[in-house]
Amino acid sequence: ELIRLNYGEEIVAEAERKVAEILVENRNEGDICGIFREGEFVLFADHTNFDLVRAYGNVRAYVKELNDKLKECCLDDDRGYIKCAVGASVYPETSDDYDELYEMAEKACEKAEHSEDARAVIYDKKEEEVSRS
Q: CA 133, 65, 126: angle at the middle one, nearest 5?
């Protein structure tokens, strides 16, 4: 919203394009990536490698790597950085229901948006709290 207020719609489109490029460049084969609604993207990724014990660790590592790349994302001509918040939930670790997984990822994203130090958060249902990555 700050980009829209300070620079206008054209720059918002540039910011969304840059974030989309990072998501597409960093997805694995078979991952599904797209725009969910204005300013929000969704990425469905399989990090299990048929090992559910390692899946949570794989997601945590992937979210951290993606977050690091998004932190470096900036507008052209050094007009400023694009602040991105990443929220994640893990199937089947946190839930096996799509709607619940999405809700948890959305809660984690909201937590990331309001956090000063972490822009990537993974929802941890077992502890009924959100853990930072």
A: 30
Which two three-digit tokens encode residue 37?
Answer: 């609604």
The three-point CA angle 67-83-41 to 5° equals 65
Tens digit of each residue's pLDDT (9 = 90 or more) over 75-114: 776 666 777 888 888 777 778 888 888 898 888 888 888 8
At residue 132, what is the residue type? R
Cα atoms found within 13 Å of the Cα of residue 90, Cβ hemisphere only? 24
Tokens of 81: 């950085």
Query: E strands along the chain, which residues?
Result: 32-37, 40-44, 86-88, 120-124, 129-132
Q: How many structural domains are present in the chain?
A: 1
Residue 107 belongs to domain with CATH number: 3.30.70.270
Task: Report CA 22 to chain centroid distance, whole Å.
Answer: 11
The per-residue pLDDT for range 36-50, each reduced to its tens digit, is 877 788 888 776 666
Domain that holds residue 84: 2-132
